[in-house]
Every structure is written in structure tokens, then in C-alpha cells.
Specification:
ATPase-coupled transmembrane transporter activity; 4 helices; mainly alpha; ATP binding; ATP-binding cassette domain-containing protein; single chain; Type_1_exporter; nucleotide-binding; 5% strand; 37% helix
Length: 76
């Protein structure tokens, strides 16, 4: 969705970081507040728009875990 369309607000509500001020959020016909937290977490996945991994080359990302690794070590 476009900037300002409510994606972040929806995620905040679904993750129960915020509670609704008006109306209600339902998943599968059940009020969000009635969901068990572990069942709620198992029913959804959040993918951040923020990219921390694979922003550079594969080598760059491998070096994040082992900054002193040689090319030979990275290839095995």
C-alpha cells in the first residue's frame, strides 16, 4: 500500500501493541481481544519493510557474522 494508507497502524493493532479506540478488529469473525496471544502470533506473519540483511552482496552479509573470515572460509 501507499504511504499513509494505514499499514503500520494495522500492524500495531494486530500485534496488540495498540488497542482500538472505536469499533473492533476481527480475525475469522473473532474479536482480536478474544484471541489467545500465542494463537494470534501463530496465525499471522509480519514482514518489515526495513532491510537489514542482503542489502549488499552475499559476501558482505556473510562477513557480518564473521568479519575476519577469509574468502576460503566463506566459500565452505
Amino acid at each position: 500500500g501507499q504511504t499513509g494508507s494505514g499499514k503500520s497502524t494495522l500492524i500495531q493493532l494486530l500485534c496488540r501493541y495498540w488497542d482500538v479506540n472505536q469499533g473492533e478488529v476481527r480475525i475469522g469473525g473473532t474479536k482480536l481481544q478474544d484471541w489467545n496471544e500465542s494463537d494470534l502470533r501463530a496465525a499471522m506473519t509480519v514482514v518489515s519493510q526495513r532491510v537489514d540483511v542482503l542489502n549488499g552482496t552475499l559476501r558482505d552479509n556473510l562477513l557480518m557474522a564473521a568479519p575476519d573470515a577469509s574468502d576460503e572460509q566463506l566459500s565452505t
